[in-house]
Structure formats: C-alpha cells, structure tokens
Amino acid sequence: MTLYFPAAILGLSLSVALLSGCGTTSQAERPVQQVLKPPAPSTAKVDSPPSSTSGLSEKKAEPEIDEKTSVFFVFGSSTVGQSEKSKLRDAASLLKEDGDLSVTLIGRANDHGSRSVNLAVADARVEAVAAILRKLGVKAWQIKKNVIGGEKLPGNCVTTECRRTMRRVELVFSKGDR
Q1: pLDDT at residue 124 in the model
Q2: What homologous superfamily is domain 67-175 in, according to CATH?
Q3: Residue extents of the structural domains in the chain
Q4: What is the chain written as a DSSP string?
Q5: Residue 151 region by backbone torsions, left for phi larger than 0, else alpha for psi between -120 and 50, else beta
C-alpha cells in the first residue's frame, strides 16, 4: 500500500489555512465596542427658589413612594399583613364604585436575590394582592399585573425602612382601560 504523504499534508494544510482565514476579521471589519461612562457628578450651584414658592419641596432624585397605594412586604415573603389589607379594602371599594376604573399591580422586590428569585417573589406578591382584591369583589378585568422584580437600590438605601419600601406592590389606578 502506497501512502502519499506530501499530497495529504498539502490538503490538510490548505484546509487549515482556509478555515483560519475565515475566523479572523480585519481591523476595519471588527465591530466597534462603545463603552458608556456615567455622567460626571453635577457641581452646579442652584439658587434658592423665590419666596413665592418657598412652600414647595425640592424635587428629589428618587421617586416618592405613595404609602397609601403601596402594599409592603417583609423580606422574602408574599403574605399580605393585616395593616396592608386595609389598603386593599379601600382600593376594592374604589374599584367596585367606579366600573370604568382599573388597577395595575406592579410587583417589586429589593436587590438581595438573583434576578429569577426576585421576579418569582415579586410575582407571588402580585398574585397575593390580586387574590385579595378578587375576594373583596373586584372584577378580574379590572386587575392588571406587571412584575418588575428586583429593584436597584439607591446608594444611600441602607436602612431597614428604606429596604422595606423596595419590597412592595404598587397600585396604579386608571380609567377606561377595559
């Protein structure tokens, strides 16, 4: 049996050369990777407002959380506490009085778990709130659900109270969403 080493080596060398040529990209063809940098902190001085607006509070960087339309939870739990159930009774009364009114339940969690765990906890909280509203007589079409999950905490949110506010279901009311 005769082996043709030079032909075999030549064929193998050409195959490797062709494949390696396909795997590289010239500098001009490479995609541009853009690195976004956070904006530099603002150091601009803000003048105090005129005396006619002295009763107004300054705008805060973080959105205000409405205690009356938010149901809060203990860490890792989806059980609605007794004090929070009174908020849901008030919400159910509003929804039953106005047939055009609906509520979107926005489920949130703090950032202590993985994304999947936070989504699961937030979803369980939304389902718990929806179940209570249904038991209180709210029609199913009036309840919409939105699960956000883990919420990035502000850098200064280190207190127990601040973290508690991140573990919530917000009730957002709207008209005519039938």
Answers
A1: 96
A2: OmpA-like domain (3.30.1330.60)
A3: 67-175
A4: ----HHHHHHHHHHHHHHHHHHT---TTTSPPPP---PPPPP----PPPPGGGTTSPPPPSSPP--GGGEEE--TT--PPPHHHHHHHHHHHHHHHH-TTEEEEEEEEE-SSS-HHHHHHHHHHHHHHHHHHHHHTT--GGGEEEEEEEE-PPPTT--SHHHHHHHSEEEEEEEES--
A5: beta
Residue 151 CB partners (closer than 8 Å, separation 6+) = 108, 109, 110, 111, 166
Query: What is residue 122's predicted lDDT score, i.e. its pLDDT?
Result: 94
Query: Mean pLDDT per segment of 10 residues, for the chain of length 178 residues?
Result: 51 50 47 38 40 39 77 92 95 95 93 85 96 97 91 69 87 85
What's the whole-model pTM score? 0.62
pLDDT of residue 33: 38
Name the pairing type of β-strands 70-72 and 168-175.
Answer: antiparallel
Task: Give pLDDT, residue 26.
Answer: 46
Burial class (CB in 10 A: 0-12, 13-18, 19+), 145: middle
Q: Which of 36, 72, 56 is nearest to 164 (CA)?
A: 72
